[in-house]
């Protein structure tokens, strides 16, 4: 079975990104490219938590609303959110109005500050968990031993909505693994970006 499909421009891309220019743009310019900025890492992990049980397209289409509601995912600001902010967000039709997930993002913002204090940055901590073996992209698992271990460590540190499947999706999104399918036009670009990437210390 092929894991790619031809796009309107004649290029083969991962089968999951077809059907919307928004999806194709995310696939071509974000998914799998290495990320080191702490705010972006926090955003990606938060949105993957919201995605649980839903399609990623649903989250992507609402991303600007999420950014507006959560102070552009500045975790220093989100950590100060209180009950009134939770109620404001629960009433916000532009996002996924799941109280538990909203409260988890606020909790995780507080845990993120603790992590920065202890580890120096979110990037330093997360990239330390990069799998030793590169992904071929041929078979994409829902979770891996590495995502299970990282999920366990995050939960130990008090993070919420960070199960191993959510964590693996985060690892894919932030470029810790390259799960673009063989033959996908973006796979080589991501691989080059990863080759040039210097892991934060």
Strand content: under 5%
DSSP E strands, number: 2
- Low-pLDDT parts are none
The tally of helices reads 11
- The Cα radius of gyration reads 17 Å
Strand order, sheet with most strands: 1-2
Tell me, rounded to a whole number, the average pLDDT: 95
Described by strand count, sense and barrel closure, the largest sheet is: 2 strands, antiparallel
Helical/strand content category? mainly alpha
Helix content: 40-55%
Ends apart, CA distance between termini: 40 Å
Your description of this structure?
This protein is mainly α. It contains eleven helices and two strands. The protein has a two-stranded antiparallel sheet with strand order 1-2. Strand 1 and strand 2 form a beta hairpin. Helix 2 runs antiparallel to helix 7, helix 2 packs across helix 10 and helix 9 crosses helix 10.
């Amino acid at each position: 079975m092929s894991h790619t499909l031809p796009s309107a421009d004649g290029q083969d891309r991962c089968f999951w990104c077809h059907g919307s220019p928004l999806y194709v743009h995310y696939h071509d310019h974000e998914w799998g490219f290495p990320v080191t900025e702490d705010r972006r890492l926090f955003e990606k992990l938060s949105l993957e938590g919201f995605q649980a049980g839903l399609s990623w397209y649903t989250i992507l289409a609402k991303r600007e609303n999420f950014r507006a509601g959560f102070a552009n995912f500045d975790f220093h600001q989100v950590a100060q959110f209180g009950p009134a902010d939770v109620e404001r967000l629960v009433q916000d039709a532009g996002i996924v109005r799941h109280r538990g997930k909203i409260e988890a993002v606020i909790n995780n913002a507080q845990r993120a500050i603790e992590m920065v204090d202890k580890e120096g940055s979110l990037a330093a901590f997360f990239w330390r968990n990069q799998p030793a073996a590169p992904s071929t992209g041929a078979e994409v698992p829902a979770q891996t031993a590495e995502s299970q271990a990282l999920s366990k460590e995050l939960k130990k540190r008090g993070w919420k909505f960070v199960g191993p499947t959510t964590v693996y999706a985060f690892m894919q999104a932030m470029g810790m693994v390259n799960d673009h399918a063989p033959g996908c036009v973006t796979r080589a670009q991501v691989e080059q970006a990863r080759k040039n990437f210097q892991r934060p210390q």
